[in-house]
Amino acid sequence: MSKYLLYLSLLSLFLGVAQQIKGVFSPANAFKTTILYHLSEGKTNYVSYGVVNTNGEMQIELEASAPAGMYRLVYALPQSENNFEFIYSGKPVLFNFKNETGVEFTNSKENQLLQSYNQLMANAQNDFVQLYAQPTLDTLNYKLRVQKIDSLQNAYERLSKGTIAAHFISATKPYIPSKIETVSEYISNVKTKYFEAIDFKDPILQNSNFIIDKFLDYVFLMQFSETTSLQEYQSNIDEIYSTLATTDPFYKLTTLNALRELLETSGDADLAVYLTKNYVLPLVRQQNDTELITTLETFIRIALGEKAPNFVIENSSETSNASLYDLEGADNYLLIFWSSDCSHCLNELPEVHAYISSHPEKKITVVAIGIEENIAQWSKTIVPWSEFTHSIAKGKWTHEITQTYDIQSTPTYFVLDDSKVITAKPYSLNDLKAVLDQK
């Protein structure tokens, strides 16, 4: 028996032991499943998933061969907004996650080290910056707080030496004044030295959201005018591009495209369009990625702030000469892409019609584009909706207009201003009414 146990013990050393990613989510009823990804070489590789039970507990077993590095745990949709990253170094990772406060690691030393560093450094920097809010700069406290930041940085660099966490701690090193500076001098130096500690070729940093998060902060936080202009944000994007000058073209593209997606989802479409036109799309064309070229050209074509693509209004078996751009007299235009065999459309369009009919003062012209195969069915369906300008896209999803406007489902709404510029793309009927209420 003892020989058998010894054999199993030795076997486990050779084969390795599977490790756990284990957490407790709160409130438990807000979470269903989690998905674990390994981040490597600019790719997000699926590893496994874990079910969140009624107590909020989740557990994922990692194979003994699972590589150390950066991992991402997704806990809700959309994935891009509901996730957190962590370091896996071959040992179990335990955590608690709360909607209000985020993730707290309860055992993993590297994750705890990085988390405590970020918190303490943020507090130390905040204490330092508060000195500039005082009527008179306290020079003694100034030096003491600078020393505290410097000591904190040095201490954590020593503590983390040889770990994955060390890459992030070194790259997070803030600008530390070497002498007493005025507020304008300090602000200027913070911006010009913002990227100084980051090694953009470091694969550990590349295989995480770290650099993208730093870029996003730079775009919005590194401007200090009383009234910030669009040009200042665009200038920050220009600076971001220049920091990637010597990096691998593939990494440069994937990083800037990820930044574009974040800008788009955060509602900063004008900046996303600027980034796409000036940097992302030229890089994609250099790499001849035809699929991504099509995606980006579509994004630009129907982005907020862009003029809606023109199209001929087809309201019978014969094509008329009138187009969207020919329509005049409205303060706003609403494009509705719908279908007479879509149950959601048949529920929502009567409500839109009632809303428009009861608000003539808003001067909204509705162009309802039926994506159809059955013309007779469409003709009967539109009879009650006399307030709409009707157009039919025969051939359904193969029609040019559905591809031009990238219609993936019905109903789809676009709100335009009087110049036919896209001002909103409401997702639901309630969203649409909220937008129209502001007109």
Adjacency order of strands in the biggest sheet: 11-10-9-12-13
Shape: globular
Radius of gyration: 28 Å
Query: What composes the largest sheet?
Result: 5 strands, mixed
* Oligomeric state of shown chains: single chain
Rounded mean pLDDT score = 92
Describe the structure.
The chain has 439 residues and is α+β, with helices and mostly antiparallel strands. The protein has three domains: 13-104, Immunoglobulin-like, CATH 2.60.40; 110-301, no CATH class; 324-437, Glutaredoxin (3-Layer(aba) Sandwich). It contains 15 helices and 13 strands. The chain has helices spanning 2-15, 109-130, 139-159, 165-171, 183-192, 203-206, 210-221, 230-243, 249-265, 269-287, 290-301, 343-358, 375-381, 400-404, 429-437, and strands at 19-26, 33-40, 43-51, 57-62, 69-74, 83-88, 93-98, 102-105, 332-338, 364-372, 389-394, 412-417, 422-424. A five-stranded mixed beta sheet has the order 11-10-9-12-13. A four-stranded mixed beta sheet has the order 4-1-7-8. Helix 12 (343-358) links the parallel strand 9 (332-338) and strand 10 (364-372). Helix 2 runs parallel beside helix 4 and helix 9 runs antiparallel to helix 10 (269-287). It is globular. The protein starts with a helix and ends with a helix. 25% of the residues are buried. Mean pLDDT is 92; it is low at 1-15.
Task: Write a concise keyword list for the protein shown above.
single chain; alpha+beta; Immunoglobulin-like; Glutaredoxin; five-stranded mixed beta sheet; four-stranded mixed beta sheet; 15 helices; 13 strands; globular; disordered N terminus
